Fold each of these.
Amino acid sequence: MFKIGFSLLLLATLSYGSAPEAAPELNQKYHDSSSCKSCHMPIVKQWSTSYHAKSHYGSDEYLRASMDYVKRKTRKPINAVKVQCAVCHNPRIAVTETGIDYQIAAVMKLDKGSEVNKAVASDALAEGINCLVCHNIDKVHDGLPPEKRGIHRISWNPVGVMSGPFEDANSPYHKTQYRDFFGKDSKKLCFVCHANDRSETGLVFANTKDEYKETTKQCADCHMSPKREGVASTLATENGKAKKRMVREHRFAGAHTTSMWEGALSLVGKKEGNKLKLTLVNENPHNIPTGFGARELLIDIVYQSGSAVVESKQISLTQHYTDKRGKDTIPHLAVEATKNLSIPANSERTFAVDIPKGVGNAVVTVSYRLVNDRIRKLLKLKEKQWGEKKFITKANIRF
Ligand code: HEC
Ligand code: HEC
Ligand code: HEC
Ligand code: HEC
Ligand code: HEC
């Protein structure tokens, strides 16, 4: 009994204690998605429209503004912040940590030519989460503590070995290896990063893994596409033709895509006494909204008498984040958050509001915003998309 316990403990210490493995350095043959175009063009095109492709300081205004804000408030060098966020946003980075030595060097402007600066400037990062992130993963270490995510949770294949969903794939350009986390267990791959996103003080503000309720649908069914007949590679390998396969599209569509929102929730409204009870029903296997902090649902209620508007009201379902002095801040620097008001997976939430006197009906519209008012103001976000309302559903409730 004692022996088993002891060896388990030893194993655990060994695997928790090991330093994260930096990704092997890429070469010209396997550099970025352009190295894959000649045989996987449709996939490269689909992926390039996704926010995985925009996961980089230079490509996503919100990400950039958040990194700059962390730098200002913590007085860390910007490259130290970039390395910290790279754990999930730019996993091909060649360094995994910056110590106090680097921070001192940076303050004294002695960091030019340092390993950290070279790693951050590498153009292999500019594509964010690209083919050579997901398909170069050898193992996903599922048993690690929940805060170990991104590059801390995986080990890498040698450059030039592509892991994928097929046991019989054969490519003249690269080696191939079957891994179950591309097929029946692909959520294991997604949860490398889509879980336990936490602030500097350990407040977890996004956790799709924790919210998830098992269903028959896979993440890939909704976020890539259902499986359909096509080709994995356009290279003619079978008697002058490309091999036919059941494949998915690499869209990774999510919160930024308007069509993902339409019908994502349904709305039931009814009058009870002088209250209007509104129930939002979520049939998806994770909360809506899931993911990044400061996302927002809006319920707009317009009370009417005939066609005349009597009164209107807006309910905001979002979370606000505060620092140790109780001031507004971004999720990454938060010590505290207000209550999570998202609609739980495979479940529903009901809100009750007063019905004003003398009204005949209420037109209720539910919509979504990527970033709530406070954070848009705090970060001075300029692009229109962060504050735009995306339509989810609407109902006209007669009293
Ligand atoms: C010269 C053509 C060619 C190039 C360039 C190429 N591949 Fe492939 N790849 C193939 C062929 C052929 C297959 C096998 C297709 C099949 O069996 O249906 C394949 C299969 C794959 C698979 C599936 C592996 C499996 O075991 O399921 C992945 C993943 C993949 N390639 C990724 C990449 C990435 C990433 C790049 C760019 C770094 C790339 N490929 C560049 C030809 C190529
Ligand atoms: C976020 C992770 C991720 C990224 C980034 C990614 N893939 Fe995939 N890829 C997957 C998953 C998951 C599957 C398995 C889908 C399935 O069939 O269930 C897959 C499947 C494939 C396949 C086999 C064909 C298929 O549809 O099943 C090829 C080839 C491939 N990917 C190439 C690429 C190339 C080229 C890129 C870069 C443009 C890329 N992938 C980027 C996750 C990723
Ligand atoms: C290496 C880490 C990593 C892995 C693995 C990963 N993701 Fe992501 N994903 C991210 C990051 C980081 C973003 C946000 C990028 C940004 O907005 O700048 C993101 C964004 C998304 C989005 C939001 C897109 C939008 O428009 O709002 C979806 C959906 C998504 N990922 C689905 C998946 C699925 C499905 C898988 C598994 C097949 C997966 N991801 C695997 C890190 C990852
Ligand atoms: C039945 C379809 C369905 C399945 C299955 C599903 N999702 Fe989603 N997901 C949605 C819808 C609809 C949205 C858009 C609403 C939103 O962003 O909350 C979404 C949004 C997202 C986002 C964007 C969040 C943001 O704020 O940027 C991520 C990340 C995500 N899903 C990850 C996953 C992962 C990981 C899995 C598997 C464990 C998964 N989803 C399974 C329907 C689905
Ligand atoms: C544990 C992995 C992880 C780490 C570390 C991480 N992120 Fe993210 N981040 C994600 C994932 C996954 C998403 C995808 C969307 C979602 O779930 O809403 C995301 C999304 C975002 C978004 C929303 C982007 C958009 O287009 O809407 C911002 C902003 C962001 N992260 C900032 C940061 C900053 C700043 C850091 C470093 C201080 C950081 N992240 C570190 C996983 C991580």
Amino acid sequence: MGAHTEASIESVDVIVIGAGFAGLTAARELGQAGLSVITLEARDRIGGRTWTDHRLGHDLEMGANWIHWVQPHVWAEVTRYGREITRSPVADEAYWHGPDGTPRKGTLAEFMALIEDGQQRLIDDVRTAIPRGVEPTVGAIQDLDRLSIQDRFDEIGLDPEARAANESVWVGHVNAPLDQTGLSSALRWVSATGGHWQLMHEASATYRVVDGMRGFTDAIASDVPGEIRLGTTVASVTQQATAAGGGIIVETTGGTRIRAQKVVSTLPANAIAGITFSPALPEAWQRLGRETVASQGTKVWLRAKGHVPRFFAYASQSDPLSVLKAEFYCTDEEGDYTILVGFGPDHTRIDLDDLAGVQAAVDLFRPGLEITEVTAHDWMTDPLSMNTWMTHRPGQLTRDLTELREPAGDLHFATTDNANLWGGFIDGAIESGLREARRIIGVLR
Ligand SMILES: Cc1cc2nc3c(=O)[nH]c(=O)nc-3n(C[C@H](O)[C@H](O)[C@H](O)COP(=O)(O)OP(=O)(O)OC[C@H]3O[C@@H](n4cnc5c(N)ncnc54)[C@H](O)[C@@H]3O)c2cc1C
């Protein structure tokens, strides 16, 4: 079943579009099952929304950073490739905003005591909402999906001090304003951690991979039997009628045409309109692409003078940055410095060229730091992703998820956007890649 050229058109069993976690795992499984496979990747690197880049004198994750052993698909890959994990620093100091926006400072334990009741009440009905994390549309979620996280905070009526702190934590998790984000994200992720919000917090922002995501994706890529063609942007995907010989023709922006029996698209919903599909994509994909999903934030890395105490800080969802944490302690010829990671709910609120503006955003909730440099990748304006880690708007999860998983003819969809368990995370990307590879192998072999 090797790749061959036929009447000047290259032909393979399967074309995978995109070499992120979904594409790499799909291509590996397909190739190892004996099918000929080509992976076409628009960027000049693999990894997609994971990208380890050397900036501020350190290897930094511009995209995904944290994984956990309660994420079964990602953990299986960690085991398979002998990856190790290391912990992000435990904070000694906590900063947060009071309801009137005035800063508060305390210990990690004091902050956790402040949010405990609200965090539990936000997800108290998780066992009936989504009884099985692997079936995120089954249960009371069918009704609850109309609610935003903001709606739920409005309902549960916390005292203002606790409410401000609780809201800021969830803005950090969902990377979007809370009134635009479905309660579904909170419920499905906590369901994935057996109903324990503390474990969900730990799973989503504590342990990173030694050697970075680049080391991880390189290891998977080295196991992909077929070619991974970088710098190759797919322009169109055309399914041919049986009378015309069947199969799918994929054409790149450079004019190269490749024929396949099956194609796997790994594009996120927000970016999938970048390819012209014929016939047109199923309605669920078109509608979601038009609406866009909820996540719309930013992740920035900042250089602060000196070695500052280990801390985390939360501001409100109306601020440019709502989360800040000390991540790395470094020294160079200019002296000691600390690398901080920050998150904001709206990527348009931060201008990386305006250092004074960034300093002001930091001063709002973590006074006393001198920021000397800032760097980020704007994933929202990047046409190849147009998203960060996916969270749904109210109603989108139960309306669309089942249909998003269905192949359209010989076109399959593998993306964290249509995963069951950890949708939005790396784990979901791997789940989707394994799922679609298995389906295709079942048909083609
Ligand atoms: C800032 C940020 C922080 C995050 N933090 C975490 C975290 O801590 N933990 C976690 O688990 N997850 C996190 N995530 C989410 C995680 O990165 C994604 O869920 C996961 O990487 C998605 O994988 P994927 O393969 O589904 O999609 P992608 O990685 O987006 O892969 C799709 C691929 O398709 C390519 N492509 C697009 N269009 C075309 C085209 N026309 N032709 C050819 N190729 C094309 C893209 O270049 C890309 O490589 C974060 C994401 C971001 C952006």
